[in-house]
Amino acid sequence: MRNSITASLKRRHKEGERKLILMRYNVIAIEREYASGGREIGEKLAERLGIPCHGHDILEKAAIKMDLSLGELSNLEEGMTGSLLYNLSMLADITAGRSVDSTKAQKLAFVESDIIQNLSLSPCVIIGRGAAGLLKDRDSALKVFIHADYETRIERAVDIYRNDSMQAEKVLHRQDKRRANYFKTATGVEWKDTDIYHLFLNSGKLGVDLAVDILHASIKQQK
After folding, report:
1. Does 85 or 197 have the greater pLDDT score?
2. How many CB atoms neighbour CB 166 within 10 A?
3. For the chain, which terminus, N or C, has the lower number of CB atoms within 10 Å?
4. What's the predicted TM-score (pTM) here?
5. Domains plus CATH for the chain?
6. Is the pLDDT of residue 156 over 80?
C-alpha cells in the first residue's frame, strides 16, 4: 500500500514538473518570518502544483553528507553571526572540487548551497535555507517573503508550535534573528532585502489560502 502511494506521488510530481517547465517560474523559493505560516503556504502551493516541497530535508541531507547529527548542525546555525563565511576565491575552489581549509560552519553553508542548486534543477518549492538569496540571479525562480503582524504570529506560535504564551514574543525575535543571520551568512545578502524578492506577502492580512492563490496565479503565467 505504501509503495503504491509513493509511486502515485512520484507520478503526480512528474506531471507537475512537466507543466511547470513551460511556465515563467518553475522554482519557488520562500523565506518567512517565524510563525507567519510560510511553511504551510509553501506546502499547500507545492501540493496544488504537483511538485516536491523541500525544507527540513535539506538539513537532513547536509547532516548525512557531513556525518553530523541534526542537533550539531542546528547548533552550527545558531552560532552564525551574519558575517559571510566565504569569499569568491574559496567558493571557486569548492566548485572546482579543490580542497579548502574551512570551518564546520563554512562547510555547512557550502553543502546546503550545493544541495539547493541541485534540487532547483527540477521544478520544486524550497522553504527557507537561504534559497531565495542563493537563487537571486535565477530568472526562473520566484522569490517570495512571507510576513505577518506580531499578533497573528504570536497566536500561531502558541496554538501551532506550542510555545509558552509568556515567552512567545522572545521566541519570535530569537528565531527571526537566527534566520536573518543564517541567510546573510550563507548568501551575503540581507534577509529582507527587497531587491531580491518578487513578492512580499502579508499572511496576517491575506490568510494562508489567499496567499497560496496569489502565488499560484503568479506562477501560472506563461513564458
Report:
1. 197
2. 8
3. N
4. 0.84
5. 10-219 (3.40.50.300)
6. yes
Parallel/antiparallel/unpaired status of strands 27-32 and 141-147: parallel
CA dist 134 → 85, 91, 110 (Å): 14, 13, 11
Residue 24's pLDDT band (boundaries 50, 70, 90)?
confident
pLDDT in tens, 30-86: 999 999 999 999 999 999 999 999 999 999 999 999 999 999 988 888 777 766 555
Residue 113: all three cell numbers together = 548551497
Q: What is the mean pLDDT of residues 149-164?
A: 94
User: How many Å apart are CA 142 and CA 3, to the nearest integer?
Assistant: 32
Sign of CA dihedral 136, 29, 96, 94: positive
Residue 21 DSSP symbol:
T
User: What is the full DSSP assignment across 109-159?
Assistant: HHHHHHHHHHHTTSSEEEESTTHHHHTTT-TTEEEEEEE--HHHHHHHHHH
E strands of the chain, at which residues? 27-32, 53-54, 124-127, 141-147, 199-202
- In the sheet with 53-54, reading across from the earlier edge strand, the strands are 53-54, 124-127, 27-32, 141-147, 199-202
